[in-house]
Amino acid sequence: MLEIKDLRASAGDKEILKGVTLTVRPGEVHAVMGPNGSGKSTLAQVLAGHPAYEVTGGSATYDGRDLLDLEPEERAQAGVFLAFQYPVEIPGVTNAYFLRAAYNEVRKARGEEEIDSMDFLDLLEEKLKLVEWGPEIMSRAVNSGFSGGEKKRNEILQLAVLQPRLAILDETDSGLDIDALRIVAGGVNKLRAKDRSFIVVTHYQRLLNYIVPDYVHVLSGGRIVMSGGKELALELEAKGYEWVEAAAGVTAGATA
Amino acid sequence: MSGVATSDLDLHAGGALSESPEWLEPVRRAAAERFGQTGFPASRDEEWRFTPIGPVTQTAWRPAPTQPDELEAKSLAPFVFGHPEWSTLVFVNGIYSPALGSIGNLPAGVTVTNLAEALRADLPLLRQHLSRHAPVDGSPFTAFNAAAFRDGGLVHVPAGHDLSSPVHLVFVTTVEAAGAAMHPRSLIVVEREARASVIESYVTLADGEVYWTNPVTEVAAAAGSWLEHTRIQRESERAFHVGLTHVDQQRDSHYRSFTLAMGAALSRHNLHVRLNDENVETLMYGLYLARGEQVADNHTAIYHDRPNCRSWEVYKGVLDDRSRAVFNGKVFVQPEAQKTDAKQTNRNLLRSDLAKVDTKPQLEIFADDVKCTHGATVGRLDDVGLFYARSRGIPAEAAERLLTYAFAAEVIDEVALEPVRLELDRLVLERLGG
Asked: Does the residue A25 lie in any domain?
């Protein structure tokens, strides 16, 4: 589904990803962990096409297509979804309007007909249950004045509606209290499917108690320095990132 | 000094005064004299420094046609909105055309008519209010209007009445107005504990024609009254529009204004609100959309004369191409106006490298126990916001439109009356395309 080879990316003059290689097959959940500044959020954003980053080398192939050659909207239409670490507030546009606009763009790209607002409300009803929400949330402006937990739930709601094939969750657990974490993780778990893959970027092991990964990768200094099964997350939790960096021969904090 | 003498303001030309009551004559004459003394403002005049009014002041405008252009009601369809029972008064090139609108069913005691008719009948409230609120020494354009007005809207809501459906005053120009100047004058009087909603639209069936509209609207909001006042300016993009709205508010009154400016080569709107007594609330929202070489100018002035009042102002602009916007927001807080709560915000979205904004807050505060803030921003669409929308599958151009609409919608959302809000939404979406 996704094959990343020796991916390098910079922000301005600063190289952040220094050769990331990762393969994700359909239905797999990969956790990408790492200390602050390791490049894990950059990896998530580069895969979604964030214009602040320049890809300077390597490749990312998604379903046989050159992912890096696609505009952000083309990636979304092809089934790539990024749940933002800091979802953007759009005052003045309702959640319903925004999400239906996005849903219809994705449908158009798949050669399906656009749906009207009544049919969309029917579809929403079921999706809202995934994040334990009532319909009121849809008439509020997108993320505007939402709490941290509400913003993350809204990302998962968007994921549920847009039905991507590759979902990248960028620190979806940050800023969540335990109840919100349970709701968000519960929503994600219900969306796990044979043909849907996840890349879960997180600093802490906590989220992985809820969303149990198939593989865990440790990113440090812009490279994956260690990979393993779900037990690696627990080991990291116990021993800290310095342990991995020492084991992998990386100078701690070298990339800030 | 521009070379316009008093004689150019021949008050009897076109029958401007022919059916005016006697008491109005000295008022008009004083206004004409005032204009004769000052002439049009010069570019060095601080109030007009950023406003290129040369094309207005240096053109020999002919008087507007005295007979209304014959129009079919259906030609007004693009400008009329809301419900059929609303009172809609249509003025064609400044002259009331009763056949094109409908007064509707008004509650007993409420007066909705045109000013020329009210002057013929010499309604007593005119003597009390007409030309008593907007000072002729405030601006040469106001003086000009006071000397030359012929017609306009009159809305009077007596004490305790709720004008349940809005009044829409539609000022439409036709090709007959090419080269002419029009000076509509409207008066809105909302008495004690009365409620009303009034919309003024300045629109055209003469896209591409050059004309000049110089409207003045006076508003008297009595104690405990509530008024929503919406102003939609969609003149020809080659026309000139210089207007004043002057509002006098009394104790416990609530006045909310929304102004949309999207037409005219040059538009200037002055909104002056005087808070004459305590516990007054004033909300002023504005939106201007300029493209090509349009200039959109808004000057607002809020006079906090008395204690315990609140004014809240948000003006936003979207500028494309080589367009330009001017915003000047004056807030005067008198020494006795303690506990004033005044907030002013002006935000501008530049969608082109060549667009330009001159924004200037002007707070003059003479009381010490007040909360007064102001802020102005000039910026572009947020890259992160654009990426967010695109990452959800929305193509770049549509994402830009969506975020621009969102920027504008934030002020439109403040309009209380839903049909007005929907119409403003429609106009903005239509302008943004797609």
From this structure: yes
> What is the rounded CA–CA span in Å between residue B115 and residue B413?
32
Query: What mean pLDDT comes out for the span B369-381?
Result: 96
Measure Cα distances from A31 to A219, A224, A235 in Å: 10, 12, 14
Average pLDDT (B160-178) is: 95
Residues of A in contact with B385 (CB under 8 A): 88, 90
Task: Please judge whether A49 and B407 are an interchain contact, meaning their C-beta atoms are less than 8 angstroms apart.
Answer: no
Question: Is the CB of B394 inside 8 Å of chain A's CB atoms?
Answer: yes
pTM: 0.90
Nearest CA in chain B to A51: B387
Q: For the segment A40-55, what is each residue's pLDDT rounded down to a tens digit?
A: 999 999 999 999 999 9
Tell me which residues of chain A have a C-beta less than 8 Å from any C-beta of chain B: 48-52, 71-73, 75-77, 81-82, 84, 87-88, 90-93, 98-99, 101-103, 105-106, 109, 141, 158, 162
Coil/strand/helix, residue A140: coil
Q: Which residue has the tokens 């090139």?
A: B93
Host H or E run for residue A179: helix A178-191
Contacts of A93 in chain B (CB under 8 A): 402, 405-406, 409
pLDDT digits (tens, 9 = 90+) for A150-200: 999 999 999 999 999 999 999 999 888 899 999 999 999 999 999 999 999
Angle between helices A231-239 and A241-248 (to 10 degrees): 100
Mean pLDDT of B412-430: 96
The C-alpha atoms of residue B213 and residue A244 are separated, in whole angstroms, by 75
d(CA A96, CA A87) in angstroms, rounded, equals 16
| Cβ-nearest to B402 among A50, A93, A109 | A93
Q: Is B331 within 8 Å of B312 (Cβ atoms)? A: no
Question: Per the domain annotation, does A142 fall within a domain?
Answer: no
Q: List the single residue in A49, A91, A106 with the smallest CB-CB distance to B410.
A: A91
Interchain contact B382–A (C-beta under 8 A): yes
Please give the mean pLDDT across all residues of chain B.
93
Residue A242's pLDDT is what?
85
Asked if B307 and B340 touch (Cβ cutoff 8 Å), the reply is yes
DSSP symbols for B280-291: -EEEEEEEEEE-
3-state SS class at B47: helix
How many Å separate Cα A212 from the centre of its chain? 15
> Given this model, what pLDDT does residue B6 score?
42
| pLDDT of A244 | 82
Does a structural domain hold residue A100?
no
Q: How far is the alpha carbon of B384 from chain A, nearest alpha carbon, in Å? A: 7
Domain range spanning residue A79? Answer: 2-87+164-248
Q: Which of B285, B316, B386, B387 to mutate to test the interface with A (most CBs of A within 10 A)?
A: B387
Contact A162 B398 (CB under 8 A): no
Instruction: Give pLDDT tens digits for A51-93.
Output: 999 999 999 999 999 999 999 999 999 999 999 999 999 998 9
> Which domain CATH number covers A9?
3.40.50.300
A227 found inside a domain: yes
User: Cβ contact (<8 Å) for A49 and B387?
Assistant: yes
